[in-house]
Amino acid sequence: MARTISYREAINEALAQEMERDERVIVMGEDNAGGAGSPGDEDAWGGVLGVTKGLYHRFPGRVLDTPISESAFIGAAIGAATAGMRPVAELMFIDFMGVCFDQIFNQAAKFRYMFGGKAVTPVVIRTMYGAGLRAAAQHSQALYPVFTHIPGLKVAVPSSPYEAKGLLTQAIRDDDPVIFCEHKALYDTTGEVPEEQYVIPFGEANVVRDGGDVTVVAIGRMVSVALAAADELAGAGVQCEVIDPRTTSPLDTDTILESVESTGRLVVVDESTPRCNLATDISATVAQQAFGALRAPIEMVTAPHTPVPFAGNLEDLYIPDAQRVVNAVKSVTSWER
Amino acid sequence: MADERIKHVTMPKWGLSMKTGRITEWLAEEGETVSQGADLADIDTDKIVGTLESPEEGVLRRIVADVGAEIPVGATIALFAPPDVPDAEIDAEVAAAREKLASGELEEVAGPTVATVEVDGRPLAYATLGDGEEVVVLVHGYGGDKNSWLFVQEKLAEGRTVHALDLPGHGESAKDVGDGGLDELARAVIGFLDTVGVPRAHLVGHSLGGAVVTAVAAAAPDRVRSLTLVAPAGFGTEVDGEYLRVFASAASRRELKPQLGKLFADENLATRQLADDLLRYKRLDGVDAALDKLVKTLLDGETQAIDAASLLGSTSVPTVVVWGREDRVLPVANAAAVGERAEVRYVDGAGHMVHMENPGAVRDAVEEAVRRG
C-alpha cells in the first residue's frame, strides 16, 4: 500500500526493513545513537538530521555511534563489508569525504577488480550534499561527480521519497560500494511510497515527464527544479522531456540518447560546479554519440565555479533555479544557425 | 436560490489514484439533447483516456471545463437543464461552480474503499464500491490489479456491492502465490468469499482471472450465481507467450513498453504512466517469483497450459463470454473453445483489455449474466 511519507522517512524505512530482513545490515555514524543507551537519554539522535531515529532501540547492538573521525569509521565500515557484513555508514556531509579518500577510492573501489572478482565490498556510504541550508562553503557542496569519476564505485542521487527507498534498498543489497547522496533540502519533501520493500535497479533512468521539444536531464534535487521549469514552459507551448538518471554511476545513457534523438535538443541541470561534472559528462556523451540528432548547441545549467557562498542572497543565486532552466530551454529552442 | 432543474456533471473518479482529469474532447455540443449513457466527453486520467457516458438526460446547456484543463475529481464540468431555464441562471450556476473550484471546497468523491482480509494466512486486498445484497466480484488478469476495473466498477455498483480483488501476487495482496496453480488461485477467491461473508456472488474474470473464476465455479458451483468471462485464459491454445515471459522478466520501461502495446487495439493506450505503474509493481519484493510461477501455470512452450473450457463444461452456472476481436495476447479464435456452453459477445475495435477499451460492452455482458444468474 502506498502512502505519502517524507524523503527522510523513506530512507529510515528502507534501513529498518533491510535490517529486519538481513541481520548482516548494520548502521554506523556520528550521532546515529547519539547518547542513547546512557542514563537519561530515551531515544537516539539518529544522526545530525534525525534520519536514523528510532533504529537504535529497535535493532539492539546494530546501530553504532562513531567518533568524529571519518577516516577511521569509513575504513571500519569498508573492512566490515569485506568481512561479510553489510554496513551502512552515515558520513554526515559529503564535504568531509576528503579525509577518507584512500579508504574509498583506493581500497573499497578496487577490491573486486584487484582480487579477480573473489572479494566483494557491500558497503553503503550515506551522505548529505547540496546547498540551500545556509551551511556555508564546507557543508554545502554537490560532490557526486567526484565519486562518479572513480571506477568501482556506484553513485545514487535520489530525487524523491520513492526513489530514496528503492535506491537505498538496492544499494544495501548490492555487492559493490555505493555512495548514496541525499540532498538535505529534500528531507522534508513528501511523496507516495509503497510500504512493501522494492528495489530500483541502478542504471535505469526515470522519464519524469514526456515532451517532444527539449530533453532536460536533471540530477537529484534539480529534478524538481526542472519540473517547475517544464510546467512554466508548457504554458508557453514548449514541451520538455525531463529525465532523472537516478544513478550517476552507472549512468543510463541509452534513455538520454533516445530522448535527444527524438527532441534534438538537450539541457542538463546539475547543482555541482561546472568543471568535470555530470553536465559536462552527459553533454560530451550526447555530443559524441548523438551529434547528428542535435538541432542546437547543448546548454548546461550548473552552479558557478566558486565555493558555496555563506551570504544567503549569494547562496540563492548560486543554486540553479527554474528561471535559469527556462532561459536555457528558450535559448536552445530559439537557436538558429 | 439555484434552479433545481440545473444538473451538474462532475469530473468522475476512475480508479483509486485519480485526483484530476483532463477533457481531451467534448463529444456533445452545447444546446444538444443528450440521452443518458450517450458518450459525453473523452477524459484523460493520466493513466488512460476513457469516455464519460452522460449521467444525465436532457439538454447540455453549458460546457464548464475547457479541453486540456486539469480538473479535480468532483468539480463541475458541464451543466444540464431544460431549455426554458434562462441563460442568466446558467451563468450564475457556472460562476458559483467556478468559485467553489477556486475555493478548493469540493465535496470528497467517495472512491472505492480499500480493505484487506486474511485468507490462509495471506493478506488479500480488495476495493469495494456500492452497497446492495447482490454481490459482484471482479478478478483481474496476470500482472493486473483491482484498479484495472476503473471504468466498470462504478456503474456496476448501482444497487449492488462490487468488490474488485487483488489476486495473490498482485496489487496490494501478499506476493506469495503458493504453487501458482489455478486451484491455488481459485481457493484464494473462495476463501475471500468466505472471509467477507458472501454465500453467493456473480463472478467476473479477465484473462487469467477468467480461468480462476471458472475454476471457482467448477469447484464450488453453489457459490457462483453467474460468470462473466472477459478474454479468459484456458480456452483454446493460442497465446502470445512472448508477452507473458517478457512481462515477467522486464526490468526497464524500454523492455516492457513494447509488450504493453499488445494489450490494446489502440496501442496509444499503453501510456508511459501505465508502464511506470507496472514497473513500480514489478519492483516490489516477491513479484518476480510470483510472475515466474504464474507464467509456468499459463504457458506450455508457446501454447496455453490450462484448460478452463472443460472446467466450464462441468458446471451449468449461467455464463456470458466477452472477447475483443483484436486481442493479440489471447487471440479471439480461442473463443471457439467456448462452443455451445455460453454466449460469446465479440467486441469490435477492442484488444485484450476489453474492459478498458470498451467498458460498456463488458458492463452489458455482466448485466446480462447477472440477469440470467
User: Helical amount among residues of chain A, as a percent range?
Assistant: 25-40%
Largest interface: A-B, 17 and 14 residues
Number of structurally distinct domains of chain B = 2
Spatial gap, N to C terminus of chain B: 47 Å
CATH superfamily of the largest domain in chain B: Alpha/Beta hydrolase fold, catalytic domain
**What's the CATH topology name of the largest domain in chain A?**
Rossmann fold
Question: What key phrases describe this protein's structure?
Answer:
heterodimer; A: 337 residues; alpha/beta; Rossmann fold; 2 domains; seven-stranded mixed sheet; five-stranded mixed sheet; 12 helices; globular; B: 373 residues; OB fold (Dihydrolipoamide Acetyltransferase, E2P); 18 strands
Describe this structure in words.
The complex is a heterodimer of chains A (337) and B (373). Chain A has 337 residues and is α/β, with parallel strands linked by helices. Chain A has 2 domains: 193 residues, 3-Layer(aba) Sandwich (Rossmann fold); 128 residues, Rossmann fold. Helix content of chain A is 35%, strand content 20%. Chain A contains 12 helices and 14 strands. In chain A, strands 3-2-4-5-7-6-12 form a 7-stranded mixed beta sheet, sandwiched between helices. In chain A, helix 8 links the parallel strand 10 and strand 11. In chain A, helix 3 runs parallel beside helix 4. With 373 residues, chain B is of the alpha/beta class. Chain B has 2 domains: 97 residues, RNA polymerase II/Efflux pump adaptor protein, barrel-sandwich hybrid domain (OB fold (Dihydrolipoamide Acetyltransferase, E2P), Beta Barrel), CATH 2.40.50; 260 residues, Rossmann fold, CATH 3.40.50. In chain B, the strands form 4 sheets. Chain B has an 8-stranded mixed beta sheet, sandwiched between helices. In chain B, strands 1-8-6-3 form a 4-stranded antiparallel beta sheet, covered by helices on one side. Chains A and B meet through helix 9 of A and helix 7 of B.
